[in-house]
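Fold this: Segregation and condensation protein A
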Amino acid sequence: MDKATHNGQPLIQVSDFEGPLDLLLHLIKTNEMDIYDIRITTITSQYLTYLHQMQTLRLDIAGEYFVMAANLMAIKAKLLLPKPQTVAPVDEDVADDPREELVNQLLEYQRYKQAAQELKQRAAARQRHFTRPAMAVPDTVALTVAPGIQPADLQSALQRLIHRAMVAKPVTQSIHQEHFTIKHQMQTVLTRLKRAAGPVDFDGLLAKRPVMEEIVTTFLAVLELARQRQVRLQQAGRLAPLQVNFLKMEGSYTPDVTSSTD
């Protein structure tokens, strides 16, 4: 609630505002003005009144408030000056409005202020939620991988594929929506492995120019298939490509694709 001076005039502390634009928006809202048609005389008068009140209270006022005050008085002076007479008729809408730059600054500041308020509300809503920490993989769950392959090797193989996709990404490209799910990619991987006569390199399970979503989703699908013991992961050497082998040929195939989550 705004305070009042001894003569009943409203007193708004400048420290309550984040800057001169914030104070101007408050004045425009209080006077119920159209931001595109600011009554610059009224706004300038009230703005200077607030600054004088702050000086009376001997409170420090940032220099940017005085700069805005000077700009307001300059705009007011331009509006009071007589317009030059011209032979050809001048459209008032086309003529330069001294308030235009100020209006643009206010509109941009208003957009940022609304965005900041929305982010603040989202942050407050997020604080009411608690995120469960990541669970450790149970000891009973084991991936079907060849001896010698460590999780770091799988991570390294994924990083190489992502780097290759980033390098091959064209500078300009058409944006179109693509949706990959783990369940669908599991079915795609099994289909391609059934057609192959032996192990298939991981990058052979992808399109010629895979997008990032396809690489990550296919990688997760392969890990899920390995967990279900439908495929086996192997690597000939430390820097060799990661190979995926279909276990049906070894009599270990169990169709469990439908149990996977998307």
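The helical segments are 20-30, 40-56, 63-80, 100-126, 151-168, 182-195, 212-227. The beta strands are 3-4, 10-11, 200-201, 231-235, 242-246.
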